[in-house]
Amino acid sequence: MSKEVSEEGHPQHRKDYVDPPPAPLLDFGELKLWSFYRALIAEFVATLLFLYVTVATVIGHSKQGDACSGVGLLGIAWAFGGMIFILVYCTAGISGGHINPAVTFGLFLARKVSLIRAVAYMVAQCLGAICGVGLVKAFMKHSYNRYGGGANSVSAGYSKGTALGAEIIGTFLLVYTVFSATDPKRKTRDSHVPVLAPLPIGFAVFMVHLATIPITGTGINPARSFGAAVIYNGDKAWDDHWIFWVGPFIGALAAAAYHQYILRAAAIKALGSFRSNPSN
Description:
InterPro entries: Aquaporin-like, Aquaporin_transptr, MIP, MIP_CS. The protein has helices at residues 2-9, 34-64, 72-91, 101-109, 115-139, 141-146, 160-181, 184-189, 193-196, 198-216, 222-232, 235-239, 243-263, 266-276. The chain is mainly α. It has one domain (29-59, 69-266): Up-down Bundle (Glycerol uptake facilitator protein). Helix 2 (34-64) runs antiparallel to helix 3 (72-91), helix 3 (72-91) runs antiparallel to helix 10 (198-216) and helix 5 packs across helix 11 (222-232).
């Protein structure tokens, strides 16, 4: 009886979710798995489709000539956000649905993917982006060349510092949303989260585009900016191209640190575990 009272008086607090173990830094075993190459194909095709639809939407809008005709800036934002929603939903179970080197970089920093997988994903994403924009140019060559090829650049009236800040904050919001939507803690406690995860990610892309299209055309995805710059290959496309790599990578780093070390308190947990270890 006293044992039962003692156990009831000191309830055990156990996690009702399981954090996956950190991915190894170098996992050469992945190179022997078909699932690894299947994931690369999925990232390549998804990024190709993403760039084809979105850049074609941008060119189609520019071709209208009238700001009030066509899909408008709101439609362009919907095209980017909607495609991310669709493609993340389709590829999440195969590759994780990154479709963005900044997302891959953030997940690598959080030890969600290995260095080998992260680098391979980024290469596949950039190649897919190049092919996707190449299809747009093949189908809409005259309009593509005339209206800038959908390449990102700093808009007139904005400084490079402003553009860099916009890319950092925009990518922070996107990667932070990715971490929150795929958090094992939420996925376990809210059964609907795995099904709805692509929705907030796509909506984050939509909202960021609304804010930053007037500033940079919205990058927040180095593959998107790189693919458009390679195919268009104009001076303006390369002038400030570094912004569309540095900004997203800094934003991804900040989001990974914020989620892992502030919201999930990884540093505090590690310190507490160290102090509770009698051998220390």
